[in-house]
Amino acid sequence: MFQKDLLKWYAQSARPLVFREKKDAYSIWISEIMAQQTRIEAMLPYYERFIREIPDIQSLAYAGEDQLTKLWQGLGYYSRVRNMKKCARVCMEKYEGKLPHTKKELEKLPGIGSYTAGAIASIAYDEKVSAVDGNVIRVFSRLYNIQEDVRSTKVRKRIESLVENSLADPVSQYNQALMELGALICIPKNPRCSNCPIQHHCTAFLEGEPALLPIQTKKKERKKENKTFYILVCKDRIHLKKRPDTGLLAGLYGFDEKKPDRIYKQIELKKYTHVFSHIEWKMQGFVCQVEPMDQDFYTIDQIEKQFSIPSAFLPFYKQTKKIIEEEKDARDRY
Ligand code: SF4
Fold first, then answer.
1. Ligand 1 within 6 A of CB of 99
2. What CATH class has 2-212?
3. Pick the CATH number of 223-333 from 3.90.79.10, 3.30.300.350, 3.40.50.2000, 3.30.450.30
């Protein structure tokens, strides 16, 4: 009977989040996709800007790729925004510009997995379905003191079925209450059990050690790769190179990996490591003064207005910008 206590707590303690103000499927979808890899507080400014510029499915379906990547800059995992556009196209073609109403149909759309489909269907359309994300898995593994690896399919399925069987009315509030409890109280390290509205129902709190749950086997170590980039500069303009359509940072703008034939001056940049979910790039970079080669050289102003530089390349971009600005200052002075 923890549901009643949970719902009561949620009614009193839910954060006033802009995308929860109205039961609008589009807003819920965008916010859920953005929140997949980013804390809610950090993603809010991105969310507000995105909704202002792309207010509905129709505008998303026809938005330019560069506009979308610019709006997504800083959130990373750009395939999410590309999938959102694909999904919007399907909605225009098959669902009259709306998101379908059931979890089952939503799950068939590009980029919408079981959790997001459950969140949209239950919060926007009151369908009585679960929305199980990492937060909810953590809460349930503690609530039921589950001493098995939650990364295993068997355990995950067991938790999903426990959540499914626990669904309470109103389901939109119940699912959000579980997410909120996982985000604010039943947090990964040092859960705040003394402030928890369901502590009297929690088996790990009563009998075990909540902070040791959920049990998760170690992920495979990330692969490490050495990467060298050449940031070509000509007359205070930087060369941007569109990356291939497949692979890491597909279709985004970065720098050249091939050393140019003629370099007038070369400056080595500070090295760093960029970490992706499954791979690490040990980054080495050189600013190379070159002759103009093609049209794809841009001023700092153009780059900042028109392009989105992926975070993997930002440290090189910032160092190059500083070099260009310092050299320009020196020229102006003499
Ligand atoms: S009592 Fe502690 S471990 Fe149990 S649900 Fe609440 S915060 Fe999580």
1. no
2. mainly alpha
3. 3.90.79.10
